[in-house]
Amino acid sequence: MKTTQLFIYIFLAANLLLVACNKSSNRQVIDEAFELVYVQPDSAAWLLENKIIPASLTDSDKADYWYLLTLSHLQERRSTVNDSLIAYSVQYYKDHNRFDLLFYACRFAYWQANDKQLKESFLQDAVAEAERSGDTIHLARAYGMQADFFYKERRYEEVIDACRRLIAIAPDERADAWYVLGLNYGRMGCEDSSLYYMSEAADLAWQMKDPLAEHYLRNYVDALSHTHPQKALEKYHLLVERYPDKPFAATALGLWQSLGQKDSVEYYLSLMENGLMIDPNPWYITRNVLTKAQRAYWRTQNGAPFDVSELAQFVDSTSVAAMSLVKDEKERVRMQNKLLIDNQRLEVKRQQTLTVLFALLFIFTVLGSVTFFYIRNKREKLLATEEKLDTLQQLLREVTPVRIGTDDSSPLPDSHFFRKVLLQQLGIIRLVATTPTEQNKELLQQMANIANNETQTDALLIWEDLYPIIDAVYDNFHTRLLGFASGRLSEKELQLCCLLRAGFSTKEISVVTQQSVRTIYQRKTNIRHALGINEKDDIVSFIEYSGEVSSSSGLLSEAI
Asked: What are phi and psi of 284, to 5 degrees?
């Protein structure tokens, strides 16, 4: 039984080792992606998409997997349309207090979400986590996201509130906050406030050497051109002075249109139409369409009829190119998904093969264990049977002594007489006498029949005939035993006492009665307890001594 348990433990350990190795391998890939995601996001994405099957991950690893995959896509400026499970990461990090990643996961989920309600929900989570952590960098990013979201949703009062909170906790972010306030007030129709904040943002960004300073100043000039063209011209010269290598054709075009400088307008329109500002990449649709629209508008201002044919032609060609790119991207995504599905199928087949192999290993292990124990039990039974055979043969030799030159019918010593009678009742002597050439085989068969309960020992031994022999051979031992131990010993225990008095050893009693040695020892212990005998004292000696004392007491009583 112990060996079977050992095989089972080995099998379970092998399975646990396989699962642990798989978990370790997945964790190793995820850790490697953590190191690569900011320096080589394409490599991190490749590892995650090709080396891991999300369904095989633990909950913790799955949260990290979707977090890293979304981050790598954002770093590569790829579409996150398939990264909706970043929401799983957010929820897991919430439930398990993973504050080190929760804020970033909320941000990524906000950028990924397309549904406005879901987007705002993730935004609220990001702000709440930033406020909980008290990290000013997190707070600045959260309030900046709020301002951007509310501005796009035309929730202008909330934009103002978010910008003020941003300025309060991050003074270095004032330029960005002021610029957003300038755009916001412009949307609200507050021109003075709009121009003020845009001007302040441009000046502060320039002082802080912010890369966005050029963007802020250029847009400030564009805003001034409509209502304050002369002031816009001054700021335009400042823009060109600060950034001499930058072509500001679109800004100059709007300014000269506001000032009514036809030659300058034609010059800059020509520059833009000849390729300086027209980008062949169809994704720069807004800038290119605006150029065509400004040409049509300028012609109309100069008395020409409004003609949108050139603009329409450009838009058509751009749309066709864009649709072609979309079609190519869809095909690429389809092939990528097909490869992923094929890879998952191969992985599933590999897992199934491993499962079958382990199942076969388990079956062979069980069969091997069963076979081993079957053979061992048969061998133990054979050894036990041979041992019983030796014991029986010894008993036979004791009751059939060889006497050279004498008659075999000569009387046996009293010590062997009871044994001979008992063995005759069991039929052992008759069996040996009738089949002397097959002695061992028949003897084993007889013992096997008794051991298998085909022949009951109790049916073979007639104790009513054996008790008088015990009394005759051993000085009324049975009668004295009944008088001394009546009511304290069972019938089986009385029989055992008689066999002990006849000189049978524990092993011989086991063979004769077809009971285990352990059972015989237990019965002897029970007899000692019932009669109050010490464990070290001999049962037969105690019974004979006690019986003599009892008889003497009885005779003394009669005499009195």
From this structure: -90, 50
